[in-house]
Specification:
Blueprint lengths: L19 H13 L9 H21 L6 E4 L2 H13 L7 E5 L4 H12 L3 E5 L9 H7 L4 E5 L13 H11 L2 E5 L18 E5 L10 E5 L14 H4 L7 H36 L5 E4 L11 E6 L4 H9 L6 E2 L2 E3 L2 E3 L2 H5 L4 H5 L1 E5 L6 H21 L17
Parallel strand pairs: 2-3, 2-4, 4-5, 5-6
Antiparallel strand pairs: 1-7, 6-7, 8-9, 9-13, 10-13, 11-12
Length: 401
């Protein structure tokens, strides 16, 4: 079996490995804080204290009030709670604005509201995948009640101007939600300064556990719950809280807060180095912002001319390298990336989309090795017209230490 080297894991936008400190804290929570945090006895109090300590840790990362955070099962639930929680406040359908490059958990929620009679406007983006704030101003209507724009686009890495977008919404008296799953713990966020009413985050994107996240709800904001049950999480998210996962999220947030500035700078350097190396690979076209400062610091995305993205994913996987593709396979047929289609790419180009996302274990040696592998795979395909198993084995047999 191929040895998996953490340095060759270039899929941190999909999920990140939980840090040892997170695992240790979760194990301790399962041993000592396993009580129901709603119970009034000592076991319940111990669990409640662990939960509130984690809430404080996440709040410190975002510079917000701990009471403004609701724990959820992750980014998808947080996004759904934001959209449906606002929508259910109204007895008749209203107007919702999203972008054309939202995560599926926002796009599909919007489609559901649309099927219920809501008017949904999808803002167009430029070739870099970014929203022009002027289009938001033009799209606002008297019955607009919510705008939801992703902060860091997960597939192409574009950063949206959420400060400007949020300010437009604030001036118009419209609630503003951002899916910040890709940005929390990766770039600084200060919710005392950002005009954001609702913000989603997920633990497994910042080296915490899977299955836990949070939704920030600005004090004074009003939502309706999706789940009916007990009164947990300010009566907005029923169900006994998963203390080990919440504790893990808290520790991950605390570590991210301590290391954010240094780690972001390190990732930017690796990102620039990888971009320079891949700029020399024939057949690769950068997608998303050309100015790397306008994209996620750990993220690069490309289209490979004439090669489906999933083919490249499998070829690099045989080298022990993990990347991801934007195209998807359904019923045996490849579906082009809807994000790239929204950005103006052709279907053929959108089928060849790939994403490389760096993380804590990424090294310069790993970056250079991945660039060589990718170049060899593309060259082999261009020469032969097809990609054969083992085509890259010979020139790239030196593993990364």
């Amino acid at each position: 079996m191929l040895r998996l080297d953490p340095a060759l894991y270039f899929d941190h936008s999909a999920t990140t490995p939980p840090r040892p400190e997170v695992i240790e804290a979760m194990q301790m929570a399962m041993q000592e804080s396993w009580g129901n945090p709603s119970s009034l006895h000592g076991w319940g109090e111990r669990a409640a204290m662990a939960m509130e300590r984690a809430r404080q840790q996440v709040a410190e990362l975002l510079n917000c009030e701990p009471e403004a955070l609701l724990f959820t099962s992750g980014g998808t639930e947080s996004n759904n709670l934001a959209l449906f929680g606002v929508a259910q406040r109204y007895s008749t359908p209203q107007h919702l604005i999203i972008s054309s490059v939202e995560h599926a958990s926002v796009e599909n929620a919007a489609r559901q509201l649309q099927s219920q009679g809501w008017q949904v406007t999808r803002l167009l983006v430029n070739a870099a995948g970014q929203v022009d704030p002027q289009t938001l101003i033009q799209a606002l209507q008297p019955n607009t009640v919510l705008v939801s724009i992703v902060h860091g686009q997960n597939e192409v890495g574009s950063l949206q101007p959420i400060a400007e977008l949020g300010q437009i919404c604030r001036q118009a008296g419209v609630l503003f939600h951002t899916d910040a799953v890709q940005t929390v713990g990766r770039i600084p966020l200060d919710l005392t300064q950002l005009p954001v009413d609702l913000l989603s985050l997920s633990g497994h994107k910042l080296y915490g556990p899977q299955g836990v996240g949070a939704l920030y709800v600005r004090p004074g904001g009003e939502l309706r719950p999706l789940l009916r049950g007990g009164g947990q999480e300010r009566r907005l998210r029923a169900g006994t809280q998963g203390i080990p996962g919440i504790v893990g999220l808290g520790v991950a947030a605390a570590l991210a807060a301590q290391e954010l500035s240094q780690e972001t700078a390190r990732l930017r350097q690796l990102q620039r180095h990888l971009a320079q190396l891949l700029a020399e690979v024939p057949g690769l076209r950068l997608t998303g912002p050309v100015d790397l400062e306008q994209r996620l610091p750990h993220h690069l995305s490309y289209c490979a001319a004439g090669i489906p993205g999933n083919v490249l994913v499998r070829a690099l996987s045989r080298q022990g390298i993990a990347i991801s593709a934007g195209s998807a396979c359904s019923s045996g047929q490849l579906i082009p990336s809807r994000i790239l289609l929204a950005m103006g790419y052709s279907e053929a180009e959108a089928l060849g989309s790939i994403r490389l996302s760096l993380g804590k274990a990424t090294t310069y040696a790993a970056v250079e090795y991945v660039a060589r592998c990718l170049q060899a795979v593309i060259a082999s395909t261009s020469e032969s017209g097809s990609l054969e198993d083992g085509a890259t084995q010979s020139p790239l047999s030196v593993p990364v230490a």
